[in-house]
Batch of 2 targets.
Target 1
Amino acid sequence: MASVSGSTAHAFRANTRAAIASPELQAGLARLQQGLTAERRMRGVVKLPEFERLRDAARDIKNHTLAHLDHYLAAYERAVVAGGGHVHWCETAADARQTILAICRRLGAATVTKGKTMIAEEIDLNEFLAAEGIEPIETDLGEYIVQLAGERPSHIIAPAVHKSKDQVSDLFFHHHQKYGKTRRLTEPPEMIDEVRGILRDRFLDADVGITGANFLVAETGSSLIVTNEGNGDLTQTLPKAHIVLATLEKLVPTLEDVATLLRVLARSGTGQEFSAYTTVSTGPRREGDADGPGEYHVVLLDNGRSRMLAGEFREMLRCIRCGACMNQCPVFAHVGGHAYGWVYVGPMGAVLTPHLIGLEEAHHLPSASTFCGACESVCPVKIPLPALMRHLREAAFEARLPPAAERSALGLWRFAATRPGLWRLLGAAGARLLARMGGAQARLRRLPLAGGWTSGRDLPAPEGETFHTLWRQRGRR
Amino acid sequence: MTPPRVGFFVTCLVDLFRPTVGFAAIKLLEDAGCVVEVPELQTCCGQPAYNSGDRASAQTIARRVINAFEGFDYVVAPSGSCGGMMAKHFPALLAGDPVWTARAASHARRSFELVSFLVDVMRLTRVAARFPATVTYHDSCSGLRELNVHDQPRKLLATVAGLTLRELPRADVCCGFGGTFCVKYPEVSTKIVAQKADDVVGTGADTLLAGDMGCLLNMAGRLSRQGARVKVRHVAEVLAGMTDRPAIGQGEAD
C-alpha cells in the first residue's frame, strides 16, 4: 500500500509539527481542554457512585453481543424487516456507497441531509455523492462547518473544535452569500441562527436523510442516535427515505442494554448526564403516524469488522465512540485530530485506523503514545487501548515498518543488556563522559545524536560514577 | 521474625544518572527493616524492546531478570515504570510458556515500586528526614495507573520535617517522557513537557518531586531549558534525607 486515498497518517510526524505551529489549532485545543477534560468528565461521574460498576456492565454487554454477533445480527434483520424496513448487508465501503447511491437514484434525490455519522466519513460518502451529482448537506453544526471548510472532523464528538470563531465567521460569510446572507456575522448566537434558518429549508427540501447509529437494537430492530442539536430528528423524519448507515459492532441485544450504555456514554464523552436528544427510530412511517420517512433502510457495513472480531483486536469493537480517550490523551491534547491523518483520531483511532487503511500507512499512530494509560482508565467499556497499541507495534516491528536505525539501536541495546559485564562497562564509560560534558552546570544543552532530546530540553548530566560502580567500591553485594 | 530479603532493582536511569537515588532507596529499605541485596546479573527491565514491538527481545530480558531475582522475598525498584513492567507486564509477556508462566507470576507478585512497598508492605508510617522547602509532586503514569501509587508518597512526605506540599494542578497528566516516545516524537514530547513545566512553575514550589527518573530527567531538562529555577529530585532522596547533592541537572554553583 503506497498511499491510501485521503490519508496522511504516514506523515504523522510532519502533521504534528504543523499542528504545533498553528496558533488557531492550539487555541482550539486549549478550549477543548477546558471544555471536555478530566474535571468535566468527573462532574458527570462523581454524581454516579455506581459508575465503575456500570463500566463493567457496559463492557459485559458489548462482549456478550460480540460473542454472539451472528445471532443478534439475524434477530436484528428479522425485526427491521418485520417493521417494514430493509437491511442491506455491505462488505466493503464501495458496496455501501453503491447501495446508498441506488436508493438515492431510485427516489430521484437531488439533496441528502446527513446527521453526524463517522461511518460516512470512513467511506468518504460526501465526496462520492457529490461526484454523482447528489448534494450532501451536513446538519450537525460542527460537521456543517467542517464540510464548508472541505475538511474532516478533528474530533469524533466535537468535529470543528479546531476552528476559531473568526474562521467560522469567514466560512459562513463566504458560503452563505448564495442564500442571500451578505452580512458578516461575528457573534455565535446570530451565526447559529443563520445556520438554523438555512438548514431548516434544506431539511424540508431533502429527498433522503442519512444518519449513523450509536446503537442498533436486535430486540426491536431500532436504531438509536444521541445528539445535542436535534438535527438527527429532522434528518430522519422529514425525507422520503431514512438511511441508517452503521457497522456491525453497533449491535446490542435490547433497549434495556442501551439504557445501561447511555448512562456511561455522555458522562464519559462530554460530562453531560445525558445528551440533549436521544432518538429511537424503528422503521418507516406506519398508517396513522403523524410523520416519519416513507422508507427505512439500514446499510449494515462490515468494512474489516469481522476480521477484527476473529482476532486479538475484538476488544476494540466494544468502542461506543464517546471520545473520552482523546479528551484525556496528552498527545491528542497538543496535536489535535487532523495530525492522525484520517477519520478516527486519538487513542481509539490509533488502534482502529491501522485495521481500516493498513498498518503500513498508519503504523505511526499506535507508536505515537507515551503509554500513560489515561485512555484506558476512562474508557467506559474498558478497552485496553495501550495493550492493543502495543500489539500493533509488534506487528509493525515484525513487518519491519519502523526505520532501520531504530531496529539497529534495539539490536545493540539487546546485545549489551544480555551481557551484564559489558553493560556495566558501557554504563560506567557513558556516565563519566556525559558528566564531563555537562561541566560545572551539570547539564547538556546539546548532544550529538540526541537532538530529539536536546532540541526542546536540556539533558541533566549524570553524577559521574554509576550506582553499580559505587556499590562495588563500597564493598556491598 | 526474619527480616524480608529484598532484591533491589536499580533501574538503568538511576544506575547511569543518579546513583544517589539508589543509595537513598536502600537506606529507606534498610531503615524499614529489610535486608537488601543488589543482584549482579541485573541490567534492564526490557521496556525499550517491549514498547517498540520487539517482543522476542523483551521476553529474553524478562527471563534474565526473573533468573537474577530468583529467591528474593521481594523485588523493589525506585520506579513505577520498571516496577509496573515487572509486576504487570512480565506475566503477559511470558504467558503461554509452561515453565515461565508460573515463574513470571511469582516474580510479578513479589515486585513493587519503592514508596508503595514501604507504605503498603512494610507498613512504614513516617520517616526521620528533614527538608525545609515547598515541594510539589508529579504522579508518574505507570506508578499511578498500573500500581496505584498516589497516596503513599504523600503520606510519607507529610512526615518530613519542614516540608510543605503544594499540589500540582493536573499532577496525573503525563509529562511526555514515554520512554522511546520522547526521541521518536520529540516535538510532541517537548510540547507536552512544556505545559507540565508551566504547571510546575505555577505552583510557586521551589522543588519538584516524582518517583521515576525518566519523568524527572524530562521535567528537569525542560525546566532548566525554560530558565525556571525549580529544583528537581527523586522523592526517595527527600524521604531518605539524602539531599546534600545538587538537584537533578544542577551544578554546585546553581
Target 2
Amino acid sequence: MIASLSSPLPDCLALVTAWLAIGIAGLARPRSVRYAGRTLFVVGALVALALAATAVWSLIGGATQSMVLPIGLPDLPFHLRLDPLSSAFLLLLGAAAAGVSLFSAGYFRDSDGMAPGLLCLQYHVFLASMGLVLLANDAYAYMVGWELMALSSYFLVTTQHRIAEIRAAGFIYLLMAHVGALAILLAFGILQGGSWQFTFDAMRAAHLSPAWAAGAFLLALAGFGAKAGLVPLHVWLPEAHPAAPSPVSALLSGVMLKTAVYGMLRVAFDLLGHPVWWWGLVPLAAGLLTALYGVVFAAVQTDMKRLLAYSSIENVGLLFTGLGLAIVFYGTSMPALAALALLATLYHSLNHAAMKSLLFLGTGSVLHATGQRNLGRLGGLIHRMPWVAGLTLVGTLALAGLPPLNGFVSEWLLLQSFLFADQIPRAFVDLLIPLGAAVVALCAALAGYVMVKFYGVIFLGQPRESSLAHAHDCSLLERVGLGWLAALCLALGLAPAQVVSALTPVTRQLTGSATAQGASWWLLAPVPARAVSYAPLLFLLAGAAVVALTVLLVRLFYHRRVRHARPWDCGFGEVSPRMQDTAEGFGQPIRNIFQSFFAIERELPTPFDAAPRYRIAIHDRIWLGIYQPIAGWVRRLADVVAGLQQGRIAAYLLYSFATLVLLLAVVLAT
Amino acid sequence: MRPGPIVAQALEIAVALAAAPLFLGWVNQCRAWLANRGAPSMLLPYRNIRKLFHKDAVLAENASPLFRIAPYIVFGTMVVAAGIIPSLAGRLPLVVAADAIALVGLFATARVFLSLAAMDVGTAFGTLGARREMMIGFLAEPALLMVIFVASLISATTALPAISAHLASERFTIDPSLAFIGVAFTLVLLAENARIPIDNPATHLELTMIHEAMLLEYSARHLALMEWASALRLFNYACIGFALFVPWGIAARDIGPFGLTLSIPVLALKLAAAGGGLAVIETVSAKLRIMRAPEFLASAFLFAVLGLLVHVLLGGA
C-alpha cells in the first residue's frame, strides 16, 4: 500500500477502470434494482472516494507522473499524465461523484425508463470517461474520452426516451456536443504545430506563430465554451440538464461542465504555454455576459430543474470570468495576480461541484416525493421532508454566496482579484475591467434572489396542491448522499486556508506563482501586500456565540410561552394557499427590470372571459435570433438536396450521364 | 492576547446594542419636529422592545423551525456586523474575520433569512414582502459593494478599519470619486433600511409596505429581536458611512481607555448629525411607487460605477 501511494497515477487509472468494471457488472442482472442500484452504486461511490483521496495525495505531493498505455490503434498508444491540474479536477470528480453515487443507490427505481443495469453501465462509463479526459496526455486519448463522455451522457439524458421533449433535448445536446468537439479537434490540429505529433508533450514543445496560437485559443474557447454553456453556445444546457434524471443532472452540472474549464486551463496555460494578454479579454467578456444572462433567466424560471440549469450557466460565466482575468494578468507579467484569479476559478469549480450537485439531488428527492417539477405546484415541503429541506438549505445558502459557506469564498477571491485590475499596464483595459466587478457583484446579488425563490417556493409556505400532503422524506442512502455534499459545502466554506494551500501546486504549475498563505491556519489572507483577510471559522463562532447568548438571555430573563394561532389574514377571512406568490409572481420584478433580455409571450384574459386564463411564456432571444434561422437555412438546404432525390432510376442515370459529360469536358479543357 | 482589545471589542458591541434604538428614537423625534408634530420620547423604541419581550409569542400553526430561529440569526448577524464595523476603534479582534466584502455578505445573509422567514407561513403579504425585499436587495447590494470597491481601490485594502484610517490620514488628498460614492451610499442606506422614499417605516397600509410586510407574522420576543435588528442595521449603515466619509475621531491605534472615551462622544455627535440629516431627507421627499424603486436603486448603482470610473480615470493619470 505504501508503495502504491507513492505512485498515484496507476492508482487513478485502476480506479477509473474499476468504474468501467462496475458498469459492465451491472449488465449481469440488468433488471434487479437491489443488485445494480443498491449494491453497485455504493461500490462506485467507494471507488469515487478512493479516487478523491488519491487525488488529494497526488496534489499534496505536487509531482507529475506520466505513462504510456499500449491500447488503442497501432502506433497510437494512450499517453496518460497526472499533474497538479488534473489531480485537482480528479479530486472534484471523486468528491462530487461519491455523494451523487450514494444518492443514486437509493434513488433509481425500475420505473425510470431504462433498466437499472443499463443505467448503471451508462452512469459508470460516464464517470470513467471523465476520468480519462482528466488523465489524457495526448489528443487521441483525450478525444476518445471526450466523445465517450458525450455519448454516455447523451444516453443518460434520454433515460426517459419515451417522452418526445426529452428526445428533442437529447438531440440538441448531442448536436452541440459534436460541434464543440469539432472545434476542439481543430484546436488540437493547430496545436501540433506541423510536427504531426499529437501527444500533449509535443504540443508543449511546438512553437506557433502568434496568429496560429490565437486561432488555437479561440477554437478551444469555442469548443470548451460549447461544452460549458458559454453564451451564445448555451442553448442546449437548460434543455438537457433538466431532462436527465436528477443524479445525472447533478453530474452534468456539477462535474461535466468543469471538464470544459479543465480543458480550457490545459490548453491556455499548459499547451499554449504563454497566453497573450488580450486573449483573456474574450473569455472575460463572454463570461460576464454569460453570468448575467444565466442568472437573469434563472430568476424567471418556473421549473425547478431549469432554474438550477440556468444558475449553472451563471456559474460557468463566473468561472470563465476568473479564467479570462487570470490570462490578462499572466499576459501582462503579473503572475502573482494571475495565481489569485486562477485560484478563484479553481476554488469556484470545487464549490460549484458540491453545491449544485447537492441542489440537483434535492430536486430529485422532491420529484420522487411529489411527482412535480413545476414550482407553481409545490410548497410547504419543509414539514413533510425535513431532511431534504435541511440539507438543501445548506446548498441554497452556499449558492446564494453567503458567508460563512463555500460560495462566498470563491466570490470573495474573484472580487479581490478584480480589485487589482486597475494596475494592468494597458490603456482602457485598466478602465474597463474594474467595471466587470460591478457585473460580478450584480450577479452575486441576483443569485441570492434566485435562491430565495427556489427555496421559498419549494420548501416554505403552504402546500399549493393537496396531493403534497402525501409527500415523504427521502431514503437513508439518499440522505447520506445529500449529507456528504452538504458537509463538503461546509468544509470548503470553513477551511479556505487549507483548500487554498492544497490548490497552490496547481497555480504554481500554471503560472509559476502562488498566493500567500495566511499567518494562521484559520485565516485566509491571500494578498500579503494588502491587509485583507477572511476567517470564516471566527466569523461563524462569533455569530453562533451571539445567537446562543441571545437565546439563553431571552429564556433567562423572560419566558418561553408560545401560543399557536391561524396566520394573520388582514381581516380578509378567506386566505388560501393560492394567494402565495407563484414562481411567475416571484420572478415578476426581474421580468420588468430586465425586459430587454427576454422575448415574452403573454396571453391575457379580457374582462369578459368566463374562464379567464393568464399565461406567460419566456423565450430566449438568442434561440429565436440565431439558432432558429440557422435551423431554417439547414432545412431549406435539405429541401433543395431532397429535390434531387427523385427515387426513379431514370433520373439517377441522367445524373450519372451529366456528371460524366461534365468530367469529360473538364478533362478536355485542361 | 492582551485583554485590552477584547474589552474594547465588547464595549463597541455594547455601545451599538444600546445606541441603536436610541438612534432610531432620535430620527423619529427629528421627523416629528420637522413635521410640526409633538415628538415621542427618544426612549420609545426601548419601551417598545421591552414591552414586546414580555408578551406571549403567537406563532402561526404552520410555522416551521426556520421561522422561529430566523429572528435570532438576523439579530446575530447584525450584532456581528456591529463588531466588525469600526464605529469606536479600528484594529479590534473581530476585524480579521471579515473585511468589507464579507460585511456586505453578512448583510445579505440577514436579508435572505428575513425573506425566507417571511415566506415560511405562506401568507400573501409575507411572500409579497419577501419578493420586494429581495428586489431592493439585489439592486442595493451591488451598489453597496461598488461603494466599498471604490473605497478599497483608493486605499488599496478591503479591510474597513484600514480604509477608514487611510481616508482619515493627512497624506490623503481628496478624491472626487468620494462624492459619487457618497451619493450612492446615501441612496443605498435609505433603501436598505426601509426609509422613505423606498419604504415607509411608519406605514401599516399593506399594499405599500416592504419591511413591515415581512414582519406581519412575528410577535412578542421574535418581533422585538427583529425590531432591534433593524435598528442595529440602521446604526451599522450609519457607522459604515462614518468610517468612509467622516473617518475622524475613530481610535485608530490607541484602543486604551483614553482613545475610547474620546471616540464615544465623537460618535454621538456624528449620530446626532446623521439622524437630523436622515430626518430632513425623509421629510422633504415623498414615497416612490414600488415600480419606481428599481430606478432609484439603479441610479445608486450607476453613481457608484461612475465613482469607480472617475477614480480609475484620475488615478491612472
